[in-house]
Amino acid sequence: MVSQETHMKETKEYTLYNETVMDHFLNPRNMGDFQEADGVGEVGAAACGDIMKISLKIRDGKIEDARFKTFGCGSAIASSSMATELIKGRTLEEAKSFSNQEVVDALGGLPPVKIHCSVLAEEALKAAIEDYEAKQSPKVA
Amino acid sequence: MVSQETHMKETKEYTLYNETVMDHFLNPRNMGDFQEADGVGEVGAAACGDIMKISLKIRDGKIEDARFKTFGCGSAIASSSMATELIKGRTLEEAKSFSNQEVVDALGGLPPVKIHCSVLAEEALKAAIEDYEAKQSPKVA
Amino acid sequence: MDKRFVYLDHQTTTPVLEEALQAMLPYFREVYGSPSSLHRYGLQVREGLKEARQKIVAMINAESEEDLIFTSGGTESANLAIKGFADANHRKGNHIVVSAIEHPSVMNSVEYLTKHGFEATNVPVDPIGRINPDDVRAAITDKTILVCVHLANHDIGTLQPVKEIGKITAEKGIALYADALAAAGWMPIDVRDLGVQLLSFSPHHFYGPKGIGVLYRNRKARVTSHIHGGVQEGGRRAGTENVPAIIGAGVAAEIAVCDLARRVEHVSMLQKRLYDGLWKNIEYIKLNGPPPGPLRICNTLNLSTEFIEGEGQLLLLDHQGIAVASGSSCVSKSLKVSHVLSAIQLDHALAQGNIIMSLGKDNTVEDIDYVIETFPRIVHRLRDMSPMWKEFEEGAIDSVINPTGRGKSFTQHAADISGKPAH
Amino acid sequence: MDKRFVYLDHQTTTPVLEEALQAMLPYFREVYGSPSSLHRYGLQVREGLKEARQKIVAMINAESEEDLIFTSGGTESANLAIKGFADANHRKGNHIVVSAIEHPSVMNSVEYLTKHGFEATNVPVDPIGRINPDDVRAAITDKTILVCVHLANHDIGTLQPVKEIGKITAEKGIALYADALAAAGWMPIDVRDLGVQLLSFSPHHFYGPKGIGVLYRNRKARVTSHIHGGVQEGGRRAGTENVPAIIGAGVAAEIAVCDLARRVEHVSMLQKRLYDGLWKNIEYIKLNGPPPGPLRICNTLNLSTEFIEGEGQLLLLDHQGIAVASGSSCVSKSLKVSHVLSAIQLDHALAQGNIIMSLGKDNTVEDIDYVIETFPRIVHRLRDMSPMWKEFEEGAIDSVINPTGRGKSFTQHAADISGKPAH
Ligand SMILES: Cc1ncc(COP(=O)(O)O)c(C=O)c1O
Ligand SMILES: Cc1ncc(COP(=O)(O)O)c(C=O)c1O
Fold this sequence. Notes:
The complex is a heterotetramer, with two copies of chain A and two copies of chain C.
Chain A: H1 19-26, E1 39-44, E2 51-59, E3 62-71, H2 74-87, H3 92-96, H4 100-106, H5 115-136
Chain C: E1 6-7, H1 18-28, H2 40-60, E2 68-71, H3 74-89, E3 95-99, H4 104-114, E4 119-123, H5 133-139, E5 144-150, H6 162-172, E6 175-179, H7 191-194, E7 198-201, E8 213-217, H8 243-281, E9 285-288, E10 300-305, H9 310-319, E11 322-323, H10 339-343, H11 348-352, E12 354-358, H12 365-385, H13 387-393, H14 410-418
Parallel strand pairs in C: 1-11, 3-4, 3-5, 5-6, 6-7
Antiparallel strand pairs in C: 2-8, 7-8, 9-10, 10-12
Helix pairs in contact in C: 1-8, 2-8, 3-4, 5-6, 8-12, 9-12
The structure holds pyridoxal-5'-phosphate (2 copies).
């Protein structure tokens, strides 16, 4: 009987996503929460049930730091990791025009059926900015 | 490139029909015509187009000798070969009740779709006897 | 423990037995004729096919070789069983009874028929996925011509009371079709004892080759051919036979029969070990389907780990060399949770965290111990990443598996934040 | 000359190239996953399948990999092309034009449709089996949605003017399906140049494995799936893929392309030699279909030897190690003469004596010389046994091939003695 160990050639890694996506999935950047976040956005995808939460530290109208937590598939985790990387250092105005396509491009592409994961990252970011702005001007509400 | 000659294992012969049928097909008994036959029957199968001819030598109400010629498949040839073997030495009365089943049994069976070949042999034999009898009593006609 | 490669997806497909492959090789090379040919190259193949048929007849105790139709796989077999039977028998009635947790090949064949003049009744299952024979009886009308059930569920491993259902269909004088795909090779199958008129399976699920399926169909169940052409398979399935695969299927069937007791014993032992080990090491984990024992097929576990999603688990397991499947929506191309998990009314949160581990004869105790050691770390890591876990710890949402009485449900939470309900 | 084994039935099936088999082997053993799986066992298979697809795309100059659907064989491909296209396009019209000499998989698929609301027009062929494009044009009505022709005839080897027909269908805005089974691997195929929207073939006809078929189907030709289940092949063909066979098909396609010129040259040379040799050594022999040259596929000869029947010739040839096919009625399970021979209005007497010899790349000049030496002896022997030969010599019946003006026709004779006409 052939041992299972020899069944798989080790010469090449076969992965579901490309190298960048896999890297962000296996080594997520900015994973976690802040003790005290300035803005938090948590959104869910009706399509597949994924949930993504992005927390921001804002200083002087700029995103100083960002964290994510994600309940979802590999591309959802990678998308949130990449999104938090991309937005760090941007002004709120810049961040408001952030688009999921940036995430897709930076990840080197996502399978068509997984594009919605990057949309979720965009939405979580925007929800976090809204949350921050809502907290800044409570009287307006 | 592997030579075609080595492609087929010579250990066993694979043949379409059983050994007896193949033997009668490859080494047909009583193949031919008589210079002067006492009775000749030639019949055709509408189903497949086979044609079978049986010639008889009759002496003292007995089939002294028989010959066949067949246009048809392997089992038609084998059936006529076997039929001529079987009927040699029989009285005309015996031969009139000859049935294709005897051919099938003596051949050790035929594929269902080929049973009609043995029927053709029965019919050719009976046509030959009729021919003989018609020649014997030309006034009766 | 060192990283190792552990294939735990035997309910999806298996490698081919070396004995089966060796038997196939000549049919690629020197014995390459078509069995329809009358020359020795064809005749030699006929003989091989006949032997293969006999081995499959023996495996399921069929009445005769003529009761087998070789198709291209389990899916085509299911299609031919259902659509072919419906086509041949539509004058007798236009109603089909089908369980709610059949494989898509069965479900979609029935659905196709409902678009072409047939009606279907889906029989629900209980929370462990069992069909109740009384429900089948109740679903049968005087228009019913066929009942479709399966021996073992491909997702959650539940064994079904096919023999009891067979008594009902016999009494009613209608045909019973059983999809035996998840069962064949992993439990004894006796078509006569079961009382089925149609039964299908796919040898690549028990170490035979892909590209070949079997449909058993006895004299009482006429099927109309759905692939038109030559008169192969007694006119019921046209097309040049997949000769090497049929030969391999025969060998795989023969060895499956000889080796069945040993295989069942071995994987049952591993199944129990895996179950015990994972449940000891992981909190908030739920078994879907019956516990290891008489109601579960011996080689599969279906579990849900709460607060995390299935694809991530699958990928991290794969990264550690462990190959598993998942019925979670992220894993399916249609982004839908497995309809089996829906049918057992598994909470959406748990359906999302679904993992299927199916064992094979070559898995070892060391493999299982490696999984028991590795999987909890992966669950831990993903929970760390999951907003739900923290929210659960903080009391904002509650566990479905072990409710604390604090917080709203995951489903409610998901609905609240996504606007639309997650279900 | 010593007895040798000469396989001359390559239009029925071929052995698998050793290169293809070697490429397949890992997919039976270590690379055994299902391409639907997300773990490495599945992903590695996906990569292999993608490469195989690319090789087949290259072979027929298809636009993209998505235009290929893998099925279980040529027959299923033809069924899917015709029934799947009809199903997806029935709102546009219900008329199909089909040549009279298509393979049964095409004929019977069209016949199935005629039982389900479609109408079909059979386009006749000329005495060498050519379809006249003008006849196709004339057969097209404003209800026509599909024209079905083939590149090369499987029985008599006639090449068809598919490109000319493609111009007509393009002009009329309807789809053209070409069965390329007898052609693929033996002549260049360019789907874009031909102007076909659907094209099918089966790799086991050019040294690929059995159990796999290809349907090319471009964006202009939607087909509805006929095997329901999972979403394999982009949802157009359900069922676990026959992975090793797809891999083998890819390699066979790649090598067929590289080796095409050499193969064609080699078998053309053998074809000519066989033709010349047999016609020199045997009287009353007729070639069915066009002479070797631009109107005939390079690897097959279809001949009729008068006064004797086909099965006997086939069996005696087989006894001498030579494997051939026959379109005679005795050889077919239905006892019917090949419908192709009927369509070219071959006299029944000649149809009965039909033999098909199809050449392959591994046949040698020595093989052919052996056949040229052996076959005349067999013909002689069977004529000796045949009542027709003597009756011909005696002037009771006449030859169809070389009429002497004496005696009645064979067909008349057969009708006279069998009561019913032999036709
Ligand atoms: C229970 C069941 N039936 C049918 C099938 C379809 O089999 P295949 O994919 O081999 O065609 C499967 C596939 O896994 C299955 O699990
Ligand atoms: C022209 C043609 N089309 C289709 C087919 C069917 O192919 P398969 O038997 O591989 O399914 C054949 C088979 O010989 C053929 O010759």
